[in-house]
Amino acid sequence: MLRFAFRFAIVVFLTLLTQIGGIAYLVDLAVARLWGVRRFLPKLAIFLLVYTGLMLATGIVAPIFGRVPLSCLADASNKLVVRSPIYCALNRNYVTPGMRDLAHALADNMDRQFPGTTTVVLDANFPFLTGFPLLPHLSHADSRKLDFAYYYKDANSEFLNSETRSPIGYFAFEQPADGDDQPCKGRTDWLTGRWDLDVIQPLFPNFRIEEQRMVAAINWLTTDGVSKFGLEKVFIEPHLKNTLGITDDHVRFQGCRAARHDDHIHVQVR
Questions:
Q1: Which residue has the higher pLDDT, 84 or 77?
Q2: Exposed e or buried b for every residue in 69-89, given b needs 16+ CB within 10 A?
Q3: What is the predicted pLDDT for the residue at 73?
Q4: Before 167, cis peptide (omega within 30)?
Q5: Residue 14 CA to its chain's centroid (Å)
Q6: What is the CATH code for 69-269?
Q7: Got the DSSP string for 185-225?
Q8: What span, in angstroms and rounded, lies between the C-alpha atoms of 150 and 213?
Q9: CB contact at 8 A, 152 and 165
Q10: Mean pLDDT along residues 64-81
Q11: Is 127 in a helix, a strand, or coil?
């Protein structure tokens, strides 16, 4: 009974983490039993082979269900890149064709306005099943959402192409000043995805937002993004919206139960 509970927990964990990992683990157990494999390392090798095969098959099958992967194999000539291969390894890089087209069009526009600029994307969605949660996000469950990394500059105001403050593009927050708009200040919600993570903030490099590119990207999203690609809304924190001088109503506050959005731009289409 204990072994069953342990294996069930692994299936749930891998499914929540990757969507297809639970299936790969069950196949691994079946193959290991069929072949009489008992040692951990051979079992792990079987799991990795099965998982890799399922991941490759997913990239072929998912478009049938209206979701396409953003490639993690971009080279230096690509102007849209996924921040880390981990997003692709965990199948968190799937979007609708319309969102894919928006992302590439934004990247092309940024490269035209600021030659050589690369646009970086983060979490997207899983490949299957509308409503399946992409933790810890509250809304990345239908392939219509995509997070973009901020554009950064160093202490000398030199643009840092393709770089982010954190290795995965999240959790390195732009802290508001005391007088800034902070609608969640003082709240103590116990069920929330809004984590300040103060203890890790000193670990990140002292990059700053590159305002020109940030404003240009958001302006494009709220004009061409709306008219040509069906953009519905953009989430950033109110203090950054004010700092950047953004007034368009498509740029909104996500609420106090969702994750902070002063480390990335959340975009969703209809």
A1: 84
A2: bbeeeeeeeebbbbbbeebbe
A3: 83
A4: no
A5: 18
A6: 3.30.1380
A7: TT---SS-S----GGGGGGS---EE-HHHHHHHHHHHTTHH
A8: 9
A9: yes
A10: 89
A11: coil
Render pLDDT for 166-202 as a digit per residue (tens, 0 to 9). 999 999 999 988 888 888 887 777 777 788 899 999 9
Amino acid at 244: L
Residue 8, pLDDT > 90, answer: yes
DSSP code for 140: -
Candidates 160, 145, 62; CA nearest to 102 is 145
Instruction: Enter the pTM of the model.
Output: 0.93
Phi, psi of 43, rounded to the nearest 5 degrees = -65, -40
Which residue in 83, 205, 214, 211 sits closest to 154, CA to CA? 205
Q: Are strands 231-235 and 68-69 parallel, antiparallel or unpaired?
A: unpaired
Question: Among 94, 87, 167, 77, which Cα is nearest to 122's?
Answer: 87
Burial category of 192 from C-beta neighbours within 10 Å (exposed 0-12, middle 13-18, buried 19 and up): middle
The rounded distance, in Å, linking the Cα atoms of 136 and 85 is 19
What would the pLDDT profile of 92-150 be if each residue is shown by its tens digit? 999 999 999 999 999 999 999 999 999 999 999 999 999 999 999 989 999 999 999 99
Tokens standing for residue 52: 């890799």
Mean pLDDT of 240-248: 95
Contacts of 151 (CB under 8 A, 6+ apart): 117, 159, 209, 210, 213, 214, 217
pLDDT for res 1: 80
172, 127 Cβ separation under 8 angstroms:
no
- What is the pLDDT at residue 217? 98
Domain boundaries, given as residue ranges, for the chain: 2-65, 69-269
What token pair was written down for 116? 């050589």
